[in-house]
Design goal:
It is built from eleven helices and 13 strands. By secondary structure, it is of the alpha/beta class. The chain has two domains: 219 residues, 3-Layer(aba) Sandwich (Rossmann fold); 63 residues, YebC, transcriptional regulation domain (Alpha-Beta Plaits, 2-Layer Sandwich), CATH 3.30.70. α3 crosses α4, α5 packs parallel to α6 and α8 packs across α11. Belongs to the ABC transporter superfamily.
Length: 312
């Protein structure tokens, strides 16, 4: 008998986590639906990892309500953990074992039969694009390959919910894109993803819906496009000036945009029409060393909400 709430994978109300006097998560509400890719976007120290550890049912909450897969982690932690896939920030693979052995050992740990583990390992190595490295020791793999293997291993038990904590930190751009492609494929098979990240491009690529976290609280929630529409403008004009010339320029561009952010190395003019604003700046005799018109991103949303950038 399926109830209405079968499609709610995670539900948190006023969820909090304290470490002594320090409040890492200060009462947040989160609602993750089946089949969506849900993101926690924010800088390091925003409370994302503490939230993920509570959802993963490995860290008890200090306050509030939490249901994961319809169960209470305090009472049914083992049952919840059996149905989750968890990809931690640091790969925790057995480096002396081969790629295939890592998958076998993990599958047996979940109590799968040898035949089932063998078949599953082949399928997952193909998914992770590691079939040709099956018998190589993990030590010999690149960072991107190790991360794909960690993700493959987290799928051994066919989880309903996959938790990924900063999945592409430390990877080069090519490895990141390959990983995003694998995660996108997973989503199309119906796996629910929860991702923490401090990369706005990752959140824009992967998340149907996300919350912006800052200082243990949720600052905003929505789809990437909704958040950009709500907190930013369609375009941003970036102006960089020679040393000593930015300060006097600020006053002269204020009325050219809906708002102006002054960063140490550049001015950001938020406007619906960046090229027009640039022409007006030139008409006023302003001579920036360089200029760039771009679309607004989640980075701009974060700057608007918190007054600072995501990656400090």
């Amino acid at each position: 008998m399926h109830g209405v709430d079968d499609d709610v994978m995670v539900e948190a109300k006023a969820l909090a986590k304290r470490f002594g006097e320090f409040e890492a998560v200060r009462g947040i509400d989160v609602h993750v639906r089946r089949g969506e890719a849900f993101g926690f976007l924010g800088p390091n120290g925003a409370g994302k990892s503490s939230t993920m550890r509570m959802i993963a049912s490995v860290s008890p909450r200090s306050d509030g309500e939490l249901k994961v897969l319809g169960m209470d982690p305090d009472r049914e932690g083992p049952r919840i953990r059996a149905r989750l896939g968890v990809v931690p920030q640091q790969d925790n693979l057995d480096t002396e074992l081969t790629v295939r052995q890592n998958l076998h050992v993990y599958g047996r740990y979940f109590g799968l039969s040898r035949a089932r583990v063998r078949a599953k390992a082949e399928e997952l190595m193909e998914f992770a694009q590691l079939t040709d490295r099956a018998d190589d020791e993990v030590d010999s793999l690149s960072g991107g390959m190790k991360r794909r293997l960690t993700i493959a291993r987290s799928l051994v038990n066919d989880p309903d919910l996959l938790l990924l904590d900063e999945p592409t930190t430390g990877l080069d751009p090519q490895a990141r894109h390959l990983l995003w492609d694998r995660l996108f494929r997973l989503k199309t098979t119906g796996v629910t993803l929860i991702i923490t990240t401090h990369y706005m491009d990752e959140a824009e690529q992967l998340c149907d819906r996300l919350v912006v976290m800052d200082g243990g609280r949720i600052a905003a929630e929505g789809s990437p496009s909704e958040l950009i529409a709500r907190y930013s403008t369609r375009e941003v004009l970036e102006l960089r000036f020679p040393p000593g010339e930015q300060e006097p320029a600020v006053e002269r561009v204020t009325d050219l945009a809906e708002r102006v952010e002054v960063l140490p190395d550049r001015l950001l003019l938020y406007t619906a029409a960046g090229e027009a604003a640039l022409e007006q700046a030139h008409a006023r005799g302003l001579r920036p060393a360089s200029s760039l018109v771009r679309r607004s991103t989640l980075e701009d949303v974060f700057l608007r909400l918190t007054g600072r950038s995501l990656v400090e």
